[in-house]
From TrEMBL:
Entry protein name: P-type Cu(+) transporter
Region (Disordered): 1-72
InterPro entries according to UniProt: ATPase_P-typ_cyto_dom_N, ATPase_P-typ_P_site, ATPase_P-typ_TM_dom_sf, ATPase_P-typ_transduc_dom_A_sf, ATPase_P-type_domA, HAD-like_sf, HAD_sf, P-typ_ATPase_IB
Transmembrane segments: 80-102, 108-125, 146-165, 177-194, 329-351, 357-381, 660-683, 689-708
Species of the source: Alkalibacterium thalassium
Length: 713
């Protein structure tokens, strides 16, 4: 988007101040009543659906795959696990565990032949995701978990097949590892399934964006008749009619008609914006209560929404910067196992004989199998995901947790994220002791009677909440460019903008608020301050971020005055009038400085930066587009939940590290002992003891994962 385009597509921001004078206060022809609001909640229920898909979020994003888990295309782990389970159980019942028979095991004549057949099927079917995954890892020159599992199952399978053949051909007894082979495949398949289940599937942000734009447009022909045409067939220069309540089909300039257009989803501007002939409208924004005739200026890939789509796909194709700890540990184990096994093979061939050397080598490679390591992360992920969900935090990408613990900056949208996104009465002030506050509110509600203006609607609903009936006015007239006046109980009242009143008032005006003054006989008797109210937990969130050394920055599409007001109350840095491109560039700039960035937002204008940031957090009442671009969804739209998410991220990452120590620590200690490093002093790790230790570390990892808890709110 060139700078010219950027400025032109956002020239509407100068309407944002919305002081009363621009909005002829009582315009009777506007019958709309906040009907724009329901568009802000598009897809609010839909994000529940994300939870139930069993693919890994990272794979929908082109190159956005995250190390070590970019394997869901190698098959559905649930299906493979469930089909492999019966074979695996039969193999484990018919095979001794590293040479020792367990109470539930038995054998019969030629049972080992059956075991070889079942193991061959299991190796080909159940092992496929792992050796396909290890091929990917070797292509990336980064062997990790998949390579380690493939090594373990291949060594134990081929050596065990050799053991059975040797038994029948030469009669010698060679220890086989079918039990370890089957248990490793089942545990690893289960671990991956748990993880895929815990981590939801990302929706398609591009598709959700496209749905904001209607499929058809009403084109006005030269004879003033209307033809319905698919939006894709619109040409620049076409004149279209946009009815009240419809979404605008394409970017253009209003030729005739007046209305208020809600652009909150697209630009973040919280108030519906007054639009007159000559003003621009953006495709995807929602027309209020008037009929607009719009000349098309941009279609296809030059349109605002299309540029947002381009930004999202750019963001999603960026490689992940997450350091996947389990993947790194598995990589180290892979190299250690190979090196130690080769050293053991050479040394034992020199000091003993080939059979002894092979036994030590195979035992080393089998012991290196990451049973506990395979469950270490998935069990914590599953626990963390269910804990998060119970708090209204849907974590779609577990790496978001790891990245959050290292975050430096959080970029926050304002409208609908830190604020309620709705116009509210913030304060009512009295300037005359003739009237009580309730009487002033009754007058305000009465004089705003028949108006559908957002300001009027807020005052009327405020009076209703307070249980104050409005004063009945005999007549109400619009004062052009200033407000409204009317007659009640023989008195003449005016409700006008502060600018129209023209004198200073002795009151503290809430920052960023719009002020309307109630005047009787040219004297101010009361005033009402209205604005987009901060959510109750926004302040606590900012304090929590500072405590965790995360710098908060507010980036909003709203106007300077509104942005400054909210930023001063919260005590944070801010940027106003931010287009989607501006927000995207801000995140890009921060990342280029080497900072880890969390982005929080709820609208289409936030979607590209949600996708680009290291961690994207979408506020649940926002748009489907934002929900689809994010890694984490706050279903309750409460900024305080971000605090819970940071706590969840810190505790989950700590548990993952503890589990990696338990899971991999066993391997790091057992591998050299299995290789016979302590044999000269009479200590060898018998395969049976190795197997018991392996089971123990798996149990410890499982128990440790279950102890993950969040502080009560």
């Amino acid at each position: 988007m060139s700078n010219n385009e950027k400025h032109s597509s956002h020239s509407h921001h100068n309407h944002g101040d919305m002081d009363h004078s621009k909005h002829n206060h009582g315009e009777m022809e506007h019958h709309g009543d906040h009907n724009h609001q329901h568009h802000e909640h598009v897809g609010h229920g839909d994000h529940e659906a994300h939870k139930h898909h069993e693919h890994d979020h990272n794979h929908d994003h082109g190159g956005h795959g995250h190390g070590g888990h970019d394997h869901h295309h190698h098959g559905d782990f649930k299906e493979i696990f469930l089909k492999s389970l019966p074979m695996g159980i039969i193999i484990m019942i018919l095979s001794p565990m590293m040479g020792i028979s367990l109470p539930f095991q038995f054998t019969f004549q030629y049972s080992d032949i059956l075991v070889v057949l079942l193991s061959t099927i299991l190796y080909i079917y159940g092992g496929k995701p792992f050796y396909m995954g290890s091929i990917d890892e070797f292509k990336e020159k980064a062997p990790g978990m998949m390579a380690l599992v493939t090594l373990g199952i291949s060594v134990s399978y081929f050596y065990s097949v050799y053991a059975v053949i040797a038994k029948y051909v030469t009669g010698e007894h060679v220890m086989e590892f079918f039990f370890e082979f089957a248990s490793l495949i089942l545990i690893m398949l289960l671990g991956h399934w748990i993880e895929m289940k815990a981590v939801g599937e990302a929706g398609d942000a591009q598709k959700a964006l496209a749905e904001l734009v209607p499929k058809d447009a009403h084109v006005v022909l030269e004879d003033d008749s209307i033809e319905t045409r698919p939006v894709a067939d619109l040409q620049v220069g076409d004149l279209i009619r946009v009815q009240a309540g419809e979404n605008v089909p394409a970017d253009g300039i209003i030729q005739r008609g007046e209305s208020r257009v809600n652009e909150a989803l697209l630009t973040g501007e919280s108030k519906p914006i007054e639009k007159n002939p000559g003003d621009e409208v953006i495709g995807g924004s929602t027309n209020g209560d008037g009929v607009l005739y719009v000349e098309i200026k941009q279609t296809g890939d030059k349109s605002f929404i299309s540029q947002v789509q381009t930004l999202i796909s750019q963001a999603q194709s960026q490689p992940s910067r997450a350091e996947n700890l389990a993947q790194k540990v598995a990589g180290w184990l892979f190299y250690i196992a190979i090196i130690v096994a080769l050293i053991a093979l050479v040394i034992w061939m020199i000091i003993a004989d080939v059979p002894t050397a092979v036994i030590f080598t195979v035992t080393t490679l089998v012991i290196a199998c990451p049973h506990a390591l395979g469950l270490a992360i998935p069990l914590v992920t599953a626990r963390s995901t269910s804990l998060g969900a119970s708090r209204g935090l849907l974590v779609k990408d577990r790496e978001a947790l790891e990245l959050t613990t290292n975050a430096d900056v959080m970029v926050l949208d304002k409208t609908g994220t830190l604020t309620t996104g709705e116009f509210k009465v913030l304060d009512v002030e009295l300037f005359n002791d003739k009237y009580t506050k309730d009487e002033i509110v009754a007058l305000l509600a009465g004089i705003e009677g028949g108006s559908s203006h957002p300001i009027a609607q807020s005052i009327i609903s405020y009076a209703e909440q307070q249980g104050i009936p409005p004063v009945s006015f005999d007549s109400i007239e619009v004062i052009s460019g200033a407000g409204v006046e009317g007659q009640a109980n023989g008195h003449r009242y005016q409700l006008i903008s502060q600018k129209a009143y023209g004198r200073n008032l002795d009151m503290d005006i809430p920052k960023g608020a719009t002020l309307s003054v109630l005047v009787e006989n040219d004297e101010a008797i009361g005033a009402v301050a209205l604005g987009d109210e901060l959510k109750p937990t926004s302040k606590e969130l900012i304090q929590a971020l500072k405590k965790n050394n995360i710098q908060p920055i507010m980036a909003t599409g709203d106007n300077e005055k509104a942005a400054q007001g909210a930023a001063e109350i919260l005590g944070i840095d801010y940027l106003a009038n931010q287009s989607p491109q501006d927000k995207y560039e801000l995140v890009e700039k921060l990342k280029a400085e080497g900072k880890k960035v969390i982005m929080v937002g709820d609208g289409v204008n936030d979607a590209p930066s949600l996708a680009l940031a290291d961690v994207g957090i979408a506020v649940g009442a926002g748009t489907q587009v934002a929900l689809d671009s994010a890694d984490v969804i706050l279903t309750q739209s409460d900024p305080g939940d971000i605090e819970s998410f940071i706590e969840l991220a810190q505790k989950t990452t700590r548990k993952m590290k503890e589990n990696l120590v338990w899971g991999a620590g066993y391997n790091f200690i057992a591998i050299p002992i299995a290789a016979g490093i302590l044999a000269p002093i009479g200590i060898t790790l018998s395969p049976a003891v190795g197997a018991v230790l392996m089971s123990l570390s798996t149990v410890i990892v499982a128990i440790n994962a279950m102890t993950l808890k969040l502080e009560p709110k």
